[in-house]
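Suppose a classmate hands you a notebook page containing two proteins, each written out with its sequence and a corresponding row of structure tokens. How would you begin to make sense of it? This section walks through that situation. The first entry is reproduced here exactly as it would appear on such a page.
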Amino acid sequence: DALKAQAVAARSYTIYYRYNPVSRDWYDIGNDTYYQAYGGTAKEFGTTTAAVNATAGQVLMQGGSVLQAMYAATEDLSREAHDGQGMAQWGAADKAAAGWDYTSILAHYYPGSSLGTLGGSR
């Protein structure tokens, strides 16, 4: 469920920047760690792909728009990079291990948001 929460957050983050680009020239997001890092499909695991497929099309919404779903590896990094806003991936893993489902994890880290689907709401 932590990976499902991460899949929804990452999808929301990406879509947010697609429609609110950092640069009008060549890219939607920046090329430093503030904008996350992606090692490519060679760095992915089957569990990641399964989580992405299980949450296909799901995004976080707030105020009728896709949420800029900030996230970081740890609570400390989240505080440092995003003033504590957004999901801590290790915290999400701890919550999943304690039995939280991905919707509860997302609700904890993104209060006031709702789960929607691309092209509609859920």
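The notebook's second entry, a different protein, reads as follows.
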Amino acid sequence: RPKQFHVVREFKSELCIVAPKSVLEIDRARLEKIQPMLLGDSCFFGQAVVQLSASLGIASRGFEYLHSIETILHCVSVGIGYSVMPRCLMEHHGLKAEVSIHPYAGKKNFSFYKVCLLSRKNSKLVREISSYL
């Protein structure tokens, strides 16, 4: 926790695999037919997608790097790909019924944080965001 940041809220969760509704079980045969989707290699969730694909022996034919979680979930819901997301997000997401959610094996518990610069801690915007979260 760098000193210049103020933690607005901590979210504790675990990872889960998000796949098209038709995928009832996570295995190589099912997932290698669709595209692994992630936000980026440096993203914690993106690293989990790469790790999942490697553990299933899915040859890296390239990953789809998308710009938002919403885009990834819409692609998954129409059957284009799979990804890894925080379970706390998927429990309340509007597309929850349109995808299948599966356990993620391996290191799956984590925390992520909403932060702001310490100098903005008492700003009106941060107070409003804090009450929203």
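A careful reader of the second entry would note: Residues 21 and 100 are 5 Å apart (CA to CA).
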